[in-house]
Amino acid sequence: MSTIPPLVTANLGLLPQLPQGVEAAAGRFAPLFKELAAPPFRIVADSSVLFNTHSTDNTGRAPQDHVPDWDGKGGLEGWRAYQNTHHDLAPPPGRAHALIRKLLTLNQYATDPYNEPLVRVDVVSKMPYALADRFMKAIERDFSAHSNQGIRRFSYGQNGKVIGHGASDPRIQELIKKLGLEEKIQAGGPIPNLLEFGANLYITASPYWAAQALLNGIAAVYIPPHINNLDTDDGQPIIVSFDCDGVIIDDEAEKEFQKGATFLERLFNFDQHETNLVNTIPLLGPLFPAFLGLYGLASLFSHLPSEQRPFRIIMVTARGPATQRRIKASLRKLGLNNAEVMSAVEQMSGEEKGPWLVRNNATVHFDDSPKHIGSALKHGIIAGHVVDGVVNEAIIAALAQKGDKAGDQFMLPFYK
């Protein structure tokens, strides 16, 4: 990949454009379409998802690595004390470390990596000064010269304001209201003001804050613990995999599927719904800002021979040829149908996605289904859980009751 010349301004002409006449179909994303599609691809990451600054035993947020940092004693004050006494020790890598480092390698193809990177990472944390020092040591240790230009660091306060790309899902909001949990669902915490600048994706090790961000219209994923041997410097292309329903588009068809008493009834409901609406563009899903940004990034390399492209995206869906018609037609109407950028992989309904992801060399997979997140993890694929929509209603309700104390031990049973 290093033989590819730096991208020049002319390549920006390859970016997707929202065709005239479909602004209404693009909904809340229409005025942000151009901004979200253009580089840099903007990631907001919690510091604890990039580096392991928590215990591996009793905090409930154990990362995938086997090197504990803080021992978990003394609560928040104990954690802060540990940072102060270990300020000269860089923390070990966290669960999204390899993924972020791999994405940042794309900055080597930018004409001006420092001022105009292709990928930018804003790291947010409630970190004391000592941890900030440790954090910078870890960046110096782990990130090469061409990639660390894309990393910046921010801190957040206790009353951060949630600013997203649109309104919350009214169905989930109604669920929260019915359960009387409004006081426990509040904006703030690690969702910082910087999201108002149009970040494409928020990555966190907290399922609660991932769900909270999604409730506020912010594209977000929870990264569960995983065992992954991703080599960030192997020269292999980055392949980002997306589920379709409930991720790129909304979950209206999924809701129809859930109404059936048997699997065949559910499948009939789903197929009938999609056949009736084959010429209608569905509402865009909670991770569309991430999909659009990565689609735009991949577009910059679409003029190259396929074997030279360092980045592409795939869509792995259980939709058969008949129900894929609506999706393909909708993406075409939205100007997102470049086969050199994205390919669709059909997965047989009911089968695990993990083996398909392995066969297609996926670097990471984004999905709203706990079942398919578990399958990806089981097969060694980094997974981003979109904790949103009808398939996650029980999880969202439980997270609302447990609050930000919910961690990995709370989530892992859902993936079995």
What is the number of helical segments per DSSP (H or I, 4+ residues)? 16
| 3D shape | globular
Global mean pLDDT: 77
Helical amount: 25-40%
- The neighbouring-strand order within the major sheet is 3-2-1-4-5
Biggest sheet layout: 5 strands, parallel
Radius of gyration: 21 Å
- Straight-line N-to-C gap: 38 Å
* Beta-strand segment tally: 10
SSE order in H/E notation? HHEHHHEHEHEHEEHHHEHEHEHEHH
Structural class: alpha/beta
What are the segments in which pLDDT stays under 50 over at least 5 consecutive residues?
55-68, 157-173, 175-188, 192-197
- Measured by DSSP, the beta-strand proportion falls in 5-15%
Account of the protein in words:
This protein has 416 residues and is α/β, with parallel strands linked by helices. It has one domain. It is built from 16 helices and 10 strands. The strands form 2 sheets. The protein has a 5-stranded parallel beta sheet with strand order 3-2-1-4-5, with helices on both faces. The protein has a 5-stranded parallel beta sheet with strand order 8-7-6-9-10, with helices on both faces. Helix 4 crosses helix 6 and helix 9 packs antiparallel against helix 10. The longest helix is centred in the first third of the chain and has 14 residues. It is globular, with a radius of gyration of 21 Å. The relative contact order is 0.15.
